[in-house]
Predict the 3D structure of the following.
Amino acid sequence: MTLHANTAETPAAAPAPRSSSPPPARGTARRSAAGLWFVLPFTVLFAAFLVWPLIAGLWASFTDRSLAKEESSFVGLANWIEMFGDPAVWQSLWVTLLFTLFTTPPLVAIALAMALLTHRATARIGWFLRFSYFAPFLMPVAVVTLIWEWMYQPGFGMINGLLATVGIPGVSWLTDENTVLLAIAITTVWWTVGFNYLLYLAALQGIPRYVYEAAALDGAGAWRRFTSITLPLLRRTTALIVLLQMVASLKLFDQAYLMTNGSGGPNYAARPIIGYVFETGFTGLRIGYASAISYLFFAVIIIVSVLQLRLFSRKEDAA
């Protein structure tokens, strides 16, 4: 009995504690390997068509590579020293910056005005405005430049004809060094404003109507609602548009080349820096020197983009 009683009173053995170590990471490793296979095609294309050309172009800027000979030799900083002392480089860079200054503000302001007009229009007129505002952006650059070259003609062009009706003498738009860059800028604004317009229109449609209704009940007028509601809520879209537009304007080449017949206009007043790179590399056959100029231009784009991003980020932090 005593033995039975003691056995009954003996407590049951406690269950063995569970291991706190994490499970094997085989599944995670397999998932990571599978993800790498999905990323691999893009990585290969990115390396082949962006990273390698960047490295090859940078190396070419330190050589005397030319299309006129098969072999090239290392020349060190000779191309870079020549570039910094070349007045044509700085003239073409100034033309590019001036064109960016001419086009960026109107491409932002006009796009916003067109988006506001479309956003407030009725459904019957809205579709027509969307089509008419965005249609020029779909046209090839060759067609756009051909249309505007006819409009700029000094003898029978439509623009000089309109100026004549108000008593203003005709202007030699594409043959005067004082107006050729402005003419190209006007053409570019008409051609590319549709893209910025769509971005603004999409952003406006994302603003809730009750915000405007609440402001109207508080007595805010149309101008007050625009400055206190619309513009602040469009700040991110405006920053994106300004960044994209400045980069696009800095890359001016097609319309300037076509509208000046590849000459850059009188006294090279409309020759952008990409045009000078093209002329140096494919007309002068100096690929090494053209590569050095290209990397100077690349540095300018990076600096402008970084400064702009910091400017808008500070404005958002202040807001």
In short: The domain at 51-318 is CATH 1.10.3720.10 (MetI-like fold).
